[in-house]
Write a structure and sequence with these properties.
The complex is a heterotrimer of chains A (375), B (466) and C (98). With 375 residues, chain A is an alpha+beta fold. Chain A contains nine helices and 17 strands. Chain B has three domains: 211 residues, 3-Layer(bba) Sandwich (FAD/NAD(P)-binding domain); 138 residues, FAD/NAD(P)-binding domain (3-Layer(bba) Sandwich), CATH 3.50.50.60; 68 residues, BFD-like [2Fe-2S]-binding domain (Arc Repressor Mutant, subunit A), CATH 1.10.10.1100. Classes of the chains: A alpha+beta (375), B alpha/beta (466), C mainly beta (98).
Chain lengths: 375, 466, 98
């Protein structure tokens, strides 16, 4: 049965755009479909961290995946910037996790030891810095008096997440991919001879294979092709300030200065269903936390606060799966789409092109939720 | 203890003052907040100090009329807090204020947005140069500082406001280098359908004609049919270049250039609150959807004055009075019948005052070029993005304004879209061959005015929740 | 550039602009004072360091930002002058006072 496309990627966010970019090329017809301007779009609220430090505590496979992704970033960015024709402001000079008391620092240090213990084959990639060491390494940071120290992840960095998305979409199109906005998918039907018909209202396209990378939208789409998503929305709020002269040379979890000079402050983790309202309580909490780290920020103007919904699974780890009932349909969901972008555009796309998923991802099948439920 | 009021009125201009006086007459407690140091809004800015001065004299009787309302407002028993900005409103209603570096939340059952209007963003090449201002800005300088352009000034635009300002400037002894009248030819033909309204509202028309006469008698150079223009200069405005209908391009020295292409309702706050808005094709702008009493789609949130639709100071006062009656009914301080009786007169007044609006809209439509600026025109002043930058992003694949914002940063600066929202929406609409109404607008988020992290952190929430 | 219409007997007060004394009158805004200066540009942008000056005079354009008594990013069109006020032009990205 003739199909219009080899692969239809449903969702042009962090996951969809990365995979589609990795897949696109002269020998493969790839279509990426995205929804409406005001859809949920988790990809417009990423903090921008490319982070490995402490990820997957208690889950060595996710720990490895994060390290692998972080390590793939420099090459990924080089190629992406060349092909997308735009810079994404990626920097890798380490990332900090601040501790606001000696006890907190000690606990954190022990946690990092345990974390490294999960993957003894991997080189150490964190350092524990007391306040003195922090100030020695980063003399330009005027730290608040409560800052006792921090752990530093040497593989960590940050990127402009919006430009990352724009670059991936642009590079995808330049490689020959086709991107259609305002094409929220309403139905996916298996075709008798193989392949799928994907409908956006009255508009229909045919693809040999389908990847659902639609974030929270996957909940409705997955079941159409025998896939589950197990998602619930988790609200996160962020703050951004006016542009400043440099005040923070490296990013921290919850606080970073962008290449434009704005300072991003985050984040909350709230179970509020699909409610996207910001709360002043959230803003006050985040502001106070930031001011404990860099008190001089008190004089800086807050320009915008916003909220978005994380693509959250029961254990917080990604979901990757291939459909059994509908061969050719797959699903890929996560809330760490920025860090994993290098992996999604790289090894994941490579395997997907060969009609497989990387074996390391088997553990991320949603079957694990069935087991948990049964337990 | 959190301060609580029956009503919070945001804006102490004609509408805000009228609404406050109205709800006070019904015995409700009201807090009026305004970011200016004195009441009057923009049209009656500094009227308390200026009305009885020479400047007040040359500004005209319309301006001086504001002092009477200001006096009644001061005496009505409303709590009035000047130099106070509202940075967020959350359900409850909780109104978050800041003044003198301190943030505070107050509670009210009813909130009246009386935020007036702003000049329609009218981008053209070079409009960000020092020395280019809006006509409204120049008028504010006259009102609050007795200040006029030092050298002969160029005015570009159309509408009642530039005509009034030019007359006022001439009376003050100021000099006009010229007026690029951007209203399309055939004005009288466009105005003809409203000839009846014109006759009925002759005093208003008469005033406008008087101003025009003053301008003509002063020999002000009036250039019509300009097809393109740009402001030029290094570090500041030095020259104005314009192209005439016959294709000739003229360059003239200029140190101050004043631009005006109409006014549009301030919708920042009503958008942030999620109120429903509709596109007004005649005025090329969004207007909040309001019931007969000025209530928005959000129960308890009202809009009074030019924010409800451009109508001028007198209409703003009437709208404020109507909102007061609406609030009064909600607060059960006046029966529906009593309110309806008083409203009948007010509505008749309002209709009379708004009678000329369609004619003015037809006479002075915004010039088309501001919705289709050249690629090199800066459209987002804050982030310094050109129309070309935006068009490049639009080419990617049918994005809407919020995606454009995400990809270009348009609308992400301090003004949060106040100067670029409409322009971006028009560029997207043209490129995608959709209507502007369909394309939509930026999602507006707090803070509604920037506040410092220190001010934010200073908010006492425990007390607030008590 | 703008100038004031003369008014004999008008009260005056003194401010400092970038360290230099300038005259103002009670009740006017800092932005108005900035627009009277020979150097019309009252700030440069944090994006491209482009020169800007007050544009709308009513708080909706944010081009009038200045440093007032040590506080940066203040909308000078919303600030009334006070005797002895120190105003500085804000150039590029604001710096933090430590």
């Amino acid at each position: 049965m003739a199909t219009d496309y080899d692969v239809i990627v449903i969702g042009a966010g962090m996951v969809g755009a990365a995979v589609a970019y990795g897949l696109s090329g002269p020998t493969r017809r790839v279509l990426m479909l995205d929804g409406a301007d005001t859809d949920h779009r988790a990809a417009k609220a990423n903090f921008g961290l490319v982070w490995a430090h402490g990820k997957g505590f208690g889950h060595p496979d996710y720990h490895r995946l994060s390290i692998q992704a972080a390590q793939a970033w420099p090459d990924f960015v080089q190629q992406l910037e060349a092909e997308g024709g735009m810079g994404v402001s990626y920097e890798r000079n380490g990332g900090l996790h601040f501790c606001m008391s000696d006890a907190e620092l000690a606990t954190r240090a022990a946690r990092m030891d345990a974390w490294h213990g999960q993957t003894p084959d991997l080189a150490t990639s964190t350092l524990v810095l007391d306040r003195g060491e922090l100030r020695r390494r980063f003399p330009s940071m005027a730290l608040g008096k409560d800052v006792a120290g921090a752990t530093l992840g040497t593989l960590d960095g940050h990127v402009n997440p919006l430009r990352l998305l724009a670059a991936m979409q642009t590079a995808f199109v330049r490689r020959g991919g086709e991107l259609r906005n305002n094409h929220a998918v309403s139905a996916i039907n298996a075709l008798p001879g193989g392949g799928f018909e994907v409908a956006s209202g009255e508009r229909k396209v045919r693809g040999a294979r389908v990847l659902i990378a639609a974030g929270l939208g996957a909940a409705a789409l997955g079941p159409m092709v025998g896939l589950e998503s197990h998602l619930h929305p988790q609200k996160g709020q962020l703050l951004v300030t006016e542009r400043l002269a440099p005040v923070m040379p490296v990013p921290a979890s919850g606080l970073r200065q962008t290449a434009e000079g704005t300072v991003m402050i985050g984040v909350t983790h709230e179970d509020a269903g699909y409610d996207l309202a910001t709360t002043t309580e959230g803003a006050v909490r985040m502001a106070r936390k930031a001011l404990r780290i860099l008190p001089a920020l008190a004089q800086v103007k807050l320009v915008r606060q916003w909220a978005c919904l994380r693509v959250m699974t029961p254990d917080g780890y990604p979901v990757y799966a291939r459909s059994v009932t509908h061969p050719g349909a797959s699903i890929a969901l996560c809330h760490s789409g920025v860090t994993l972008a290098a992996f999604h555009a790289g090894d994941f796309a490579k395997a997907f092109a060969a009609d497989a998923l990387p074996p390391a991802l088997n553990i991320f099948h949603y079957e694990r939720f069935h087991v948990q439920k049964a337990a | 203890m959190t301060r609580t009021f029956d009503v919070v009125v945001i804006g102490a201009g004609p509408a805000g003052m009228s609404a406050a006086i109205g709800v006070r007459e019904l015995g409700l407690s009201v807090l009026v907040v305004d970011e200016q140091p004195a009441p009057g809004g923009q049209i009656w800015r500094a009227v308390e100090t200026m009305a009885n001065t020479r400047t007040g004299e040359l500004l005209g009787s319309e301006y001086r009329a504001g002092s009477e309302l200001a006096a009644r407002f001061r005496a009505c028993g409303a709590a009035y807090e000047a130099q106070t900005q509202v940075w967020q409103i959350e359900p409850g209603w909780r109104v978050f204020l800041k003044r003198d570096g301190q943030a505070e939340a107050v509670r009210a059952d009813h909130v009246v947005l009386a935020l007036g209007a702003q000049e329609r963003p009218a981008p053209f090449p070079g409009w960000t140069l020092p020395g280019v201002l809006t006509v409204g800005a120049a008028q504010i300088l006259l009102k609050t500082s007795r200040q006029v352009p030092a050298d002969p000034v160029w005015v570009v635009g159309s509408g009642p406001l530039p005509i009034l300002y030019m007359a006022q400037l001439l009376r003050a002894g100021g000099k006009l280098a010229g007026w690029l009248d951007t209203s399309p030819p055939g004005a009288w033909r466009r105005g003809l359908p409203w000839a009846g309204a014109a006759l009925a509202g002759w005093s208003e028309i008469g005033k406008g004609l008087t101003w025009l006469r003053e301008i003509r008698r002063a020999g002000v150079r009036r250039v019509r049919g300009v097809t393109a223009m740009r402001a030029l200069g290094d570090g500041r405005l030095h020259e104005l270049e314009y192209t005439q209908a016959d294709g000739t391009t003229i360059r003239v020295p200029a140190s101050v250039l004043l631009s005006h292409e109409g006014v549009v309702p301030s919708i920042h706050m009503s958008q942030a609150l999620g109120c429903a808005h509709q596109w007004n094709t005649q005025q090329s702008c969004l207007v909040p959807v309001l019931d007969d009493w000025g209530q928005t789609s959000q129960p308890g949130i009202y809009v009074a004055g030019d924010g409800a639709g451009i109508g001028g100071a007198k209409a703003a006062c009437v709208r404020g009075e109507l909102v007061a009656l609406g609030v009064g009914q909600q607060a059960e301080r006046i029966t529906a019948n009593a309110a309806q009786t008083r409203a009948t007169t007010l509505r008749a007044q309002l209709n009379g005052l708004l009678r000329l609006r369609p004619m003015l809209d037809a006479l002075y439509p915004p010039r088309a070029a501001i919705f289709a600026p050249s690629d090199d025109t800066v459209v987002c002043r804050c982030e310094e993005l050109t129309a070309g930058d935006v068009r490049k992003a639009v080419a990617l694949a049918m994005p809407g304004p919020n995606q454009i914002k995400a990809f270009t940063r348009a609308g992400m600066g301090p003004c949060q879209g106040r100067q670029c929202g409409y322009t971006i929406a028009h560029i997207v609409a043209t490129a995608q061959q959709r209507s502007v109404a369909e394309v939509g607008f930026y999602r507006i988020r707090p803070p509604l005015k920037p506040l410092t992290l220190g001010e934010l952190a200073s908010l006492n929430l425990n007390e607030e929740q008590a | 550039m703008f100038k004031k219409l003369p008014e004999p007997g008008a009260a005056t007060l003194s401010l400092y602009l970038d360290g230099q004394p300038v005259e103002a009158e009670p009740g006017e805004t800092v932005a108005a004072v900035l627009l009277r200066q020979p150097t019309l540009a009252s700030r440069t942008t944090p994006v491209n360091e482009s020169p800007r000056a007050p544009f709308c005079m009513m708080g909706v354009c944010f081009d009038c930002l200045a440093i007032v008594d040590g506080v940066a990013s203040v909308q000078s069109c919303l600030v009334t002058v006070q005797e002895g006020m120190r105003i500085e032009r804000q150039l590029g990205r604001r710096r933090l006072a430590s």
